[in-house]
Amino acid sequence: xxxxxxxxxxxxxEDIGKLLLKFSIPAIxxxxxxALYNIVDRIFIGKGVGSIGIGAIFVGSPVTLILMAxxxxxxxxxxxxxxxxxxxxxxxxxxxxxxxxxxxxxxISLTLSFLGLIFIEPLLKAFGASDNILPxxxxxxxxxxxxxxxxxxxxxxxxxxxxxGNPRVAMTTMLIGAILNIIxxxxxxxxxxxxxxxxxxxxxxxxxxSATWVLSYFFGSRSMLxxxxxxxxxxxxxxxxILSIGLAPFSMHLASSTxxxxxxxxxxxxxxxxxxxxMGVIHSITMLILxxxxxxxxxxxxxxxxxxxxxxxxxxxxxxxxxxxxxxxxLSIGFIVTQTMPDKLFGLFxxxxxxITSILEVGIRGLRINLVMLPIIGFQIVSSNYFQxxxxxxxxxxxxxxxxxxxxxxxxFILPKFFGLTGVWAAGPVxxxxxxxxxxxxxxxxxxxxxxxxIINNPIIEER
Length: 464
Description:
Blueprint: H1 2-13, H2 16-48, H3 51-87, H4 91-118, H5 120-126, H6 134-146, H7 148-163, H8 167-191, H9 195-219, H10 236-270, H11 272-309, H12 313-340, H13 342-347, H14 357-370, H15 374-389, H16 393-406, H17 408-419, H18 421-448
Helix pairs in contact: 2-3, 2-8, 2-11, 3-4, 3-6, 3-7, 3-10, 3-11, 4-7, 5-6, 6-9, 7-8, 7-9, 8-9, 10-11, 10-16, 10-17, 11-12, 11-14, 11-15, 12-15, 14-18, 15-16, 15-18, 16-18, 17-18
């Protein structure tokens, strides 16, 4: 109880700026390292296998995004609900949510792994894999699917470590997996000459170690919340609460998978394997830039959720404002870098001695166009997270989908018909602009009604 009271005092009383730094910096470091090992993965594959290997991973990325979507559905949804319960001083309910989340993640990940392995070839063909790319993509994704349960448990349950007030431990989880993956990547690809299969094997081994670390934390003495056998029986109301709040990040990642499928097919139609491989590099660079924003989101979420549950709305607004400023600052720097030195960024992934002129020409132009709206994306991401953290999944899902589906998919169908490959690159920034304007409208309206009575109208966070 003393630990819970201490956490409540910190989240409810400590200076918001210091609190945001305290929670965000470990998350940012962890997310950056996590992104870095994915990027190093692609760099190693680019150097050891060739650009076709990068294309193969990107073609298979919808599978990875689906796995992550379900991990976020349960992990982020459960953590948000658990944070609110802790803010209401209901530790037992928070532990019940943790136990239910564990069981859900295990069942879902096993099911996805089994189905994915059965239908892997037709899935990858539908995702836009050409005849050249398909064998590489099957080799990589088959191994990744075997390790799906490790990814789900490590990624999903790690959210609860951060939510209970231990962001450094959550960061350590990501550091362990990232560092191990980088070491194994080099070993398997360059020393054992295992090619793209070696990269996949390195990934699932690292994920297995991370999952073991996370579970040992909640079964051990360091955690405030405990994984207990009696809490691992699924309860309908708990499951509904987790899935309701987790719907927003789930929808966004599932939408990302759908968008990537459409994008891959458009790239294949208008630019071929060169365009797909180029987009694989662009995606890696974008991921590295966006990771700090996701870290800020993760840091802000328990602060906003706790203070919303505790009805300290001025602190909610302050946390939101400072998170938006921080995210915008990070992405503005990223914008300057991508627009002024795209050749240096792109050259990191290219195999020496290969004919890279066409890839550089296509990729650099694509990078500049695709990230032209980068400075405003931070506001949109953080503001969508505000609705999720305060238990408003419908608004959060709508705003997330506005950027990932409602605008982007039509843009991917329409713009290439008029502008070819340039239209494919431009679909993203058009979606970013419209979604940011929409988000601003929703946010301004919601903040006006954020008063002492606002929580009464939110059935998800009310006591059941």
